[in-house]
Amino acid sequence: MDISYAEALIVTAFAASLLLALGRAERLFSIIAVAVSGIEALIVFDVITFKVKPFRLDIVFPALLVVAGLVCWSRLSTKGQVTAATIVSFVGAIQLLTALRVFA
Questions:
Q1: How far is CA 80 from CA 29, 36, 87, in A?
Q2: What's the rounded Cα separation, in Å, for the pair 44 and 22?
Q3: Beta strands in the chain (DSSP E)
């Protein structure tokens, strides 16, 4: 069984956002991170598909992850939750920069 880079990133973001949601994190933004990373995981594993013409979901979803992760990171103080928020933010940033073709 092989796992791709995109699959590994989104599973990591989903696990970290679940940790944020189950802890005493900022509730609204941690739930946004869980929802977005869950939808991304479903898309990556070909469970669902989205086609929305006016929006580029490959940019919208990572941007939401970055914002949610940074807001949670700025409002937390425990080591585990700060680490989880950092992971969510970094995964979103990597996905966003990849979608904007900065690494290409």
A1: 17, 21, 11
A2: 24
A3: none
Both structure tokens of 12: 């990591």
What is the per-residue DSSP string for 32-89? HHHHHHHHHHHHHTTS-----SSS-HHHHHHHHHHHHHHHHHHH--SHHHHHHHHHHH
Structure token digits, residue 43: 């898309």
Q: What is the pLDDT of residues 80-94, one digit of tens each?
A: 999 999 999 999 999
pTM: 0.91
Rounded distance between C-alpha atoms, residue 35 and residue 98, angstroms: 21
Yes or no: say if 34 and 16 are a contact pair by the CB < 8 Å rule: no
